[in-house]
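Response to reviewer comment R2.3. The reviewers asked that we include at least one raw input/output pair. We reproduce the pair for SDR family oxidoreductase here without editing.
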Amino acid sequence: MPPTCSPAARVATVSTAQVRWSGCRLRSRSARRSKDLRRSRSGLDRPRRGLAIQADSADPDAIRRAVSQTLDTLGGLDILVNSAGIGTAGMTADLALADLQAMLDVNVRAPVLFAQAAIPHLSSGGRIISIGSALAERVPFPGVTAYAMSKSALLSLTRGLSRELGPQGITVNLVLPGSTDTDMNPANGENADYQRSLTSLGRFGEPREVASAVAFLAGPAASLITGAVLSVDAGFNA
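Raw output as returned:
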């Protein structure tokens, strides 16, 4: 991925470990597991300075500590990327309360809490970018209702924050990936062929393609874009 930062180094807080950035100081927070933390370290493409912190998105205190440690170590904050997410498949009637609560804690509450912690430290030119899901706008099969509901909340969060933070010169945008080849949803998985059949391009996305969309929105070329939704879904929602 080509560098997208301005000549002055910028500090990015990323709420999961899959984004690769060149030329920025990058603080990456693992969503849930230690192996994610190791991936975050290996995925950094020689940043000017990097800090990897393991924290639990479901823990409000951990979120505040992660942002605080970023500020203490890197001296500021320019970009927040909310990309931690979890999902539990199943019919709504059978969904356990604990599974529902876990999805709401990570997929809905955590982005709000990260924004609350980050906003006081963002200035003009700052960015908040969230990673949602193509299922936020279209649910073409059963068994993902609660997950889709949790991701659709980011639509309103993005639009509302763009109004709140626009006067400060801070942009807020949302990326909606479709089926992407990850451990959570591998391209050789049981339902992968069906998912491909729902897209225009007939294929899964790669994590780097989603990361490229995030990098664009974080860069100077996207300075006039805010409150927007960028679909990176191979035409799933066409």
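The radius of gyration is 17 Å. Confidence is low (pLDDT under 50) at residues 1-8, 17-45. Further pairs are available on request from the corresponding author.
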